[in-house]
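Exercise (ungraded).
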Amino acid sequence: MDVSQIAQIRSFNRAVTRRVGALDDSYLRRGRPLGEARLIFEIGPEGAGLGELRSRLGLDSGYLSRMLRSLEAQGLVSVCKLDGDARSRRAILTEKGRAEHAAYDALSDDLANSILEPLSVSARDRLTAAMAEVERLFAATSITVGEEAADTAEARQCLARYFGELAQRFEEGFDPGRGNTTTKDDFIPPMGSFVIARLDGSPVGCGALRMIDPATAEIKRMWVAPSARGLGVASRMLHKLEAIATGFGAKTVCLDTNRSLKEAQSLYRREGYNEIARFNDNPYADHWFAKRL
Amino acid sequence: MDVSQIAQIRSFNRAVTRRVGALDDSYLRRGRPLGEARLIFEIGPEGAGLGELRSRLGLDSGYLSRMLRSLEAQGLVSVCKLDGDARSRRAILTEKGRAEHAAYDALSDDLANSILEPLSVSARDRLTAAMAEVERLFAATSITVGEEAADTAEARQCLARYFGELAQRFEEGFDPGRGNTTTKDDFIPPMGSFVIARLDGSPVGCGALRMIDPATAEIKRMWVAPSARGLGVASRMLHKLEAIATGFGAKTVCLDTNRSLKEAQSLYRREGYNEIARFNDNPYADHWFAKRL
DNA sequence: CAATTTACCTGATCAAAGTCAGATAAATCT
DNA sequence: AGATTTATCTGACTTTGATCAGGTAAATTG
């Protein structure tokens, strides 16, 4: 790993914590412990279930309960049943609580403003763009790639978005039925597999595998959501699928792709795939690739 | 202020604090309170004076003293006199303490690594570049612009760097003596002024003003350090100088500049200066500007 | 040289933060 | 229906972080 990149991340962490500590300080200036302030903020104008609050703030159940009692005593929060389940309860802000919430909200805005204010217009644009980039790439860190069933609602949704995109990008259009030789049963172990990439639980990519003979696996349905492109999700899914193929005894992985999917082609080449002759009669395929495992 | 930019900053703060909180957690996993861990980290392999530690960590002197006593009891730190002043003391790490410091250092590296590791090489480059940009623009937030004497060592250093840059950039070269009609006394109120822009105490820019008649001020010596360009420092110094000129009774501000300083020319135009006819015989000037206050 | 300031230490005290072992009541399982 | 699980609450307790008043010895000031 590049030492200067590690140094950059550490220096960034230092610079940013200093800045964000300022927010905690301004929260404290309202004369309430930080824990309570955060709780008010997290409950929000719409209220929140206690379990949700516990997991979001990482609090012990007794601790949360006591803080809520304190906020109730201050007349800021009321905790009511009102859910299907009479055990679980929900915290909502009173009118006074909503005013406090708004005050904390304003403090957060003030901090943001104080960061933007001394900057020129173009510097502001550059700062927010860089922040968005950092945030997006941070998110990439928590993307997971896992084998899942291909017939769940979420898997189907990925495939629908994939097909939708093909229809948009192929010059000749795209009809999922035409030339399709696979059924959903093709992606079930041990003759196939299906992986989904997830960010905070929501799918942001998928990929499928099926064995076309005992030594050859074919990769299909590789798709990454537009919001998650450029984060290396596709290559992580590809590695996962190759590992699964190896487990199935495959010696070779092959795949096809359409001429308009340029990024896909460069991904495959980068990952060690070589272009080969047509090996199927997929009417939408223009290039065929294979890689020895 | 742009609402979406404020939202971006707030969302960035949330995303980043979550990530950086992970570092505190990993520090805690070494079974020592965060305060002590930070103290070990801050003392560092070279040791540090107690006053320095107090101001860097923002600690009460009693609190620091007690933590040092605790670290001494654990055999991690030793506090010795050894300075010119027998009141002030210096904390240094024992061998065991240096080992602890190295362990904390490794944890910081691990966090940085865990952020980089899932990313592709190009994504890593983009992340660190975006982080550097955020850091630089954050730093801009704490740049101050203030009126200072023009004959201090630091002011002179700014001017030397300014002249050095002119020598490099002017096609015809630059000799500070040639055609220079100002002396250092020109930049002393109430007939002139000198401002310095500082980032964390170090000068990153300067600018000067002198009255050439009771209603006209001339701006000179505008310079921004290469490391601080693109942060709006020049326009902040310009505004400061204009405000000072107004205070001196000036109705007009004028200035000259060399043809090779393109950024300067566009800055002046952006700030409402109009090109006028030659008003002095500065041999290095190619453009003359003025602005009514 | 006496008075003051500075740099650090000690002891007392506090609130905030966090943990843990039950208690209670509703929901779910067998 | 009885046993178990789940969601929350209560009370007891600990640690951490922080503040403050006063104390000591060295350095500086007038």
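Further reading is listed at the end of the chapter. For now, observe: Chain A touches chain B through 52 residues (CB under 8 Å). The beta strands of chain A are 48-49, 77-80, 90-93, 143-147, 192-199, 202-213, 216-224, 252-257, 274-276, 287-292.
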